[in-house]
Design a protein that fits this description.
The complex is a heterodimer of chains A (about 110) and B (about 250).
Chain A: H1 3-7, H2 11-21, E1 24-25, H3 26-35, H4 46-55, E2 59-65, E3 71-77, H5 79-103
Antiparallel strand pairs in A: 1-3, 2-3
Helix pairs in contact in A: 2-5
Chain B: H1 3-18, H2 23-42, H3 47-51, H4 55-66, H5 70-94, E1 99-101, H6 102-126, H7 131-159, E2 162-165, H8 168-190, H9 192-211, H10 217-240
Antiparallel strand pairs in B: 1-2
The chains are: A alpha+beta (about 110), B mainly alpha (about 250).
Chain lengths: ~110, ~250
């Protein structure tokens, strides 16, 4: 299975977590994902996800003037988003410890 | 922005419009995409690096996340039918045709719908292709409704009896209202200046033929060629002056 396939279910949670650290705009978010090690992740993929998260009211956006000139859309978490992130963290902790147990059972 | 990135933005806009995506959503996404491309450019990234090798596949992913409702599509289709029919009716008036037979009254609205299907199909298919290929696709596909329209005209000339007569003042009033409506219709898509230029291109050559009473097939073809060349020039001009994506 490709890494991108595995990523599909968990990228939403990772994006929520990055946005939780502080307001970000699209390019910044992609750069942060890259710096955390998601190099193979196609940058443009974040936009359909951001649109979906916003539609599900997990994130919200505000337009702010950027230093470069044009306005930029900055994303932040909604209350519902913070709750979803907490839920994701719990699910992930459980899943990763379970998977680790299976993979490293002989060690 | 590089030419390649500008092309990506322009084509994405056309593709999303033809898929019935809400204009506000398109503007909102393209604003971010343009910003991303500009930032990426500084690090030597191309549109393909950022949005993948297939812009069409990316656009589909984007539309799926937006989950377009059929209502949005209906609005666009109604607007386009009105637009195409309006253009057609005004050119009939300019041609001096103010009396209509049953064949025309049924045939022309039907040809409007065929024009519309062909135009949307042509724009969708031609998106993300190079200039010559995209021109050939649009040109090839629009030949179908054109032949249908010509067919209706020939049928009318052979068998049609006029049943609806419009007087000069009625023609001027309807024509004027349609042109104003068309300008309003296109303004939200391409801006007011381009809409005015589009009207001049669409009706200008026909009007000249009428004013100078130039008769003959050669002039008609010439007028059509001028319109097509004018449209192409305008599309090129549009590409060089990207529309500001934010309103207000």
């Amino acid at each position: 299975m490709q890494t991108t396939q595995m990523l599909k279910g968990i990228i939403d949670g990772c994006i929520l977590s990055i946005i939780h650290e502080g307001e970000v705009y699209g390019y910044e978010l992609a750069a942060k994902l890259d710096s955390y090690g998601f190099e193979s992740f196609s940058e443009g993929t974040i936009y359909p996800i951001l649109i979906r998260l916003q539609k599900d009211q997990l994130i919200q956006s505000t337009l702010k003037k950027s230093t470069a000139g044009p306005k930029r859309k900055y994303y932040s978490l909604t209350e519902k988003g913070v709750e979803e992130l907490a839920g994701f963290q719990k699910r992930w902790d459980h899943l990763s410890s379970t998977v680790n147990q299976i993979l490293h059972k002989g060690e | 922005m590089t030419k390649e990135n500008e092309k990506f933005i322009q084509e994405m806009r056309v593709y999303l419009i033809t898929k019935g995506v809400d204009e506000e959503d398109i503007d909102s996404f393209l604003m971010e995409a343009e910003d991303h491309l500009t930032e990426g450019e500084k690090e030597g990234k191309t549109a393909a690096d950022i949005f993948g090798k297939s812009p069409k596949a990316y656009a589909k992913e984007l539309i799926a996340s937006m989950e377009q409702t059929p209502k949005d599509n209906r609005k666009l289709i109604a607007r386009l039918i009105a637009g195409v029919f309006g253009i057609f009716l005004v050119s009939q008036f300019i041609d001096g045709n103010t009396a209509f037979s049953l064949i025309e009254l049924i045939g022309y609205p039907a040809s409007t719908v065929i024009w519309l299907i062909a135009l949307i199909g042509a724009l969708r298919l031609s998106s993300f292709h190079n200039g010559v290929k995209s021109f050939l696709i649009v040109y090839g596909i629009t030949m179908i409704p054109m032949l249908f329209t010509v067919g209706v005209t020939i049928l009318h000339m052979e068998y049609g009896t006029d049943i609806l007569f419009l007087s000069q003042p009625v023609v001027f009033t309807i024509g004027g209202v349609i042109i104003l409506g068309l300008i309003a219709n296109f303004t939200s898509l391409i801006g007011i200046l381009s809409s005015l230029v589009l009207m001049a291109i669409l009706f200008g050559s026909q009007l000249l033929i009428r004013l100078f009473q130039l008769e003959g097939f050669g002039w008609e073809i010439g007028a059509y060629a001028v319109s097509v060349i004018g449209l192409l020039l305008m599309m090129n001009f549009q590409k060089q002056v990207p529309k500001p994506f934010m309103k207000g």
